[in-house]
Amino acid sequence: MTRFIIIMLSAVFINNYVLSRFLGICPFLGVSKKLNQAAGMSVAVIFVMLMATAVTWPIQTYLLDPNNLGYLQTIVFILVIAALVQLVEIILKRYIPSLHKSLGVYLPLITTNCAVLGVTILNIDEGYTFAESMVNSLGSGLGFFLAMVMFSGVRSRLEGADVPKAFQGLPITLVAASITSLSFLGFSGVIENLFA
C-alpha cells in the first residue's frame, strides 16, 4: 500500500509530466486560458491515460514482449491512444456538447499528447505491475489536472496585470510556465523521506 501512495504522490508532485518532464505542453499552453476548459481537458486526459494504460500494459506484457515485437511498442500505443481519444470525442459530443465545442481542436490533440504516450511507455520502462501502472497513470493524470488548473489561475491573473509590451502574449506565458514549474522542484525528495 505504501508503494502505491509513493507512486501516486510522486506522479502528481515530483515527476509531474507537464511541469517536471515537460510532456503535454501543447494543451498546457493552449487550453489553460479558462478554468472550465482546463478542467475539462484534464478530465479527458485522465480518462485517456487510465484507459490507455489498461489496454497497453497487457498488450506489451502478453503480446509484444513474448513475441519479440517490442519494436512495435510506439506504433501500437499510438493506435490505441488514437482509438481511445475518438471514443472520448464521441462521448463528449453526444453527452457534453458545450465542453466538446469549447475544447475544439485541442480534443483531437490528445492523440498526439506526448504525456499520454509518455505515461504508457514509462509504465513499461519503470517495470511497474498492472496495478502500479494504473496508480501511476491516475497520479500522472491528477498531476496534469493540477498543472492545468493551477496555470489557468496564473494566466487569469496575467490578463489583469500590467505586463511590459515586450513580454505581452506568449513570452509572459512562457515565463509564468517556467516559474510555475520551478515551484514543483520543492517537492523533490519530500515523498521518499516521508515513507523512509
Helix and strand arrangement:
Layout: H1 2-14, H2 25-30, H3 35-64, H4 73-95, H5 97-103, H6 114-125, H7 130-159, H8 170-183, H9 190-194
**Uncertain spans, ≥5 residues at pLDDT below 50?**
none
Order of helices and strands: HHHHHHHHH
Cα-atom radius of gyration: 18 Å
- Basic shape: globular
How many β-strand stretches?
Answer: 0
Task: Determine the strand fraction and express it as a percent band.
Answer: under 5%
- Please bin the fraction of helical residues: over 70%
Q: End-to-end distance, in Å?
A: 14 Å
What is the residue-mean pLDDT, rounded to a whole number?
A: 87
- Mind summarizing the main beta sheet? none
Classification by helices and strands: mainly alpha
How many helices? The count is: 9
Description:
With 196 residues, this protein is an all-alpha fold. The protein is 71% helix and 0% strand. It has nine helices and no strands. It has helices at 2-14, 25-30, 35-64, 73-95, 97-103, 114-125, 130-159, 170-183, 190-194. α3 packs antiparallel against α7 (130-159) and α4 (73-95) packs across α6 (114-125). It is globular, with a radius of gyration of 18 Å. The mean pLDDT is 87.
